User: Fold this.
Amino acid sequence: MPNNNFKIVISGVGGQGLITLLKVITQAALNQGLEVRSSELHGLSQRGGNVEAHVIIGKKVYSPLVSLGQADLIISLEMSEALRVNHYAKEDTVFVVNRHYIFYQEALKEKDLIEKLNNFAFLVPASEICHHELENEVLSTIYLLGFAVFKKLIPLKKESVEQALKDVIPEKYLEQNLKAFNLAKENNIEKVVVAAAGKGTRMLHMTKNKPKHLINVKKKPFLTYLFDNLFMAGYSEIILIVGHKAEQIEEFVKNYKPPKYIKKYKINVLNQYKIVGEQKYGTACPLETAKDLVKNDHFLFVCGDNLYSAKSLQTMNIKGDYHYIAGLFHDNPQKYGVLITDNGTLKEIKEKPKENLGNFINSGLYKFTPEVFEKLSLIKKSERGEYEITDIINLLAKEGKVKVKKINDSWLDFGNPADVMRASRFLGFFKKWKRL
Assistant:
């Protein structure tokens, strides 16, 4: 990035508010004392026409145009418009794309879009959120800017943007635009609890000298891939629960580096054995361990021996009063917990049922509100002598408080020695797995 200049390309369709977004970004940069050059709009700026704008901010800016393959950030206000400006992307360009279609809804699928982009993309349901929360989809442009600012994807400060909104937006529309900007932070889950305290006995000899989460897959510890996908899905704080051979995982965390375009991240390590003791065991124990650090925040919960696509992880970033469980269809449901549902609401999880209850299974990926901690004291040891997180979820399900989210992407359960080869094939098949 010569002269530390930051290059932005914005693409959209006439009528989406791209001109306003351009003005706000430019003014925010000026408010920070930066030089800024922005291009005139390229394309048909009337309603429905393709529109493109360039912004370069930094210390010494000489041109308003971004050269091909030089953009640091591409903001697309419509799904198909991201493809139209793809040629501006370089290796580490980040896309922030409104998960919204104006044209080609049937022709262009999300997976097709992600496959064709050269880089990682945040697909943000900005239009849907602004329609639901603010009753105005046009505010999605400012929501996307808020998303980029709070994720530190753009070198603009919150205060600079808020002042720019006051400078640019007419007074009668200002309050709604400020709400849209800050809604991007309010509507976003930051924390993820990753359970990695188990002994991994099913891995047999492979866990004699190390935790299973650190078994190498394609020359990297398995946990690397889960961490990478969590950060690329937009989460910024991992609360890692360790126990068995904790010192090895703590050393891994010290040396771990996220993908280079992740600017904001934090990893906290909590030792389950020290907080709840070694005699208390089970999938609910990481919840108890993390309680004081999570506090009153909504959060994701994931097992450290499972791997999900960034897209699936992103799908679970849902605020609101409900808890969510991610489910998928599986050919061998008898090995897992089967989800019994009614119109998208979980009724019960049946663990490893002998009878046929369908093949929609629990993938072990959850979104919780702080209410989940109230159920910790209500569960007892299961038949196998453990405290089960599924017992907590079943208590919440009886109250109608758990929704089910179907995930379509691949899921990997890293549980036994054969899964090491499966994981290698899994990652090898998706050569661009980091974007899926």
